[in-house]
Amino acid sequence: MPLVDKLKPGLCLGLALLLSAHWSVAQKTLQLVSGQQIREGVAALPRIAAPNIAEAKINAALDRQDLWVRKAAEACSGPGMFWKRVVTVTKSGPALLSVLVSDSADCGGVHPFDETFPLVYDLRTGDAVRWDKVFPKGKAEEVSTSSSDGMPWITVRSKHLQALYVASYKGTRDCGIEIVAGETEFHLYPDENANGLKIFPAALPQVAHPCATAFTLRAKELQALGVSQQWQDAILRQYGKP
């Protein structure tokens, strides 16, 4: 029997064990702790309690994000000025951590501003999720940009997502379909309450931000877009549910 054939059973078993271990890292119940407010009205991001190596990497990224807003809020201190931040955890495992951040401020410019953006991390690796890598090649591309306070984030540009979003958009008297029809740059984040992947425009003018309503991609849409079963599970799976 050739040596390679002798190795195959052991090699397959080893690969299976390695793959199982890789995924099991994210299977423990995630415990999050809330920190003190950065300043009045400015919520801190949560941290992962008793983190493993990957989770410690996420905590360090959250530390940097809090430092960004601390500096921005401190610079926004004067008569009539304010900075407010609200954070909402939209998914806390078993594979992904997602936090939706909503900033609003008046720092003495011509107009106040508001920004809403997600921070999504892979609990297996500790890295920020690259959504352009989640979709098949050619269906989405990464865009590096930043919020009004200079905090960096990653969005995706996709005509496929644009088509889905526009088709599902429910316009109102103040937010007609024409406002979002040309938008191809999106924020994405998993939402366990909606049991899907939410998307909303990332590059609307400030005055049109109230029109950036979120649309949920569920299993059917994710499958149609070519998202792998592994990533569908990461986005949709919840603790205690198959």
Report on the structure:
- This protein is 32% helix and 26% strand.
- It has 242 residues and is of the alpha+beta class.
- The chain has a single domain (27-236), classed as Fervidobacterium nodosum Rt17-B1 like (Heat Shock Protein 90, 2-Layer Sandwich).
- The longest helix has 23 residues, at 53-75.
- The protein is globular.
- 27% of the residues are buried.
- The model is unreliable at 1-26 (pLDDT under 50).
Which tags fit this structure?
242 residues, alpha+beta, Heat Shock Protein 90, 7 helices, 10 strands, 26% strand, globular, disordered N terminus
Summarize the structure.
The protein is 32% helix and 26% strand. The protein is built from seven helices and ten strands. A hairpin with a 6-residue loop joins β4 and β5.
Largest sheet: 5 strands, antiparallel
Give the name of the CATH architecture. Answer: 2-Layer Sandwich
Report the strand count.
Answer: 10
User: What general form does the structure show?
Assistant: globular
Task: Give me the strand/helix succession.
Answer: HEEHEEEHEEHHEEEHH
CATH topology: Heat Shock Protein 90
Radius of gyration: 20 Å
Can you tell me the CATH superfamily?
Fervidobacterium nodosum Rt17-B1 like
Query: What share of the residues lie within helices?
Result: 25-40%
Give the helix tally: 7
Overall tally of structural domains: 1
Unreliable segments (pLDDT under 50, ≥5 consecutive)?
A: 1-26
Order of adjacent strands in the largest pleated sheet: 6-7-8-9-10
CATH class: Alpha Beta
What structural class do helix, strand and pairing data support?
A: alpha+beta
Question: What is the mean pLDDT?
Answer: 85
Strand % is: 25-35%
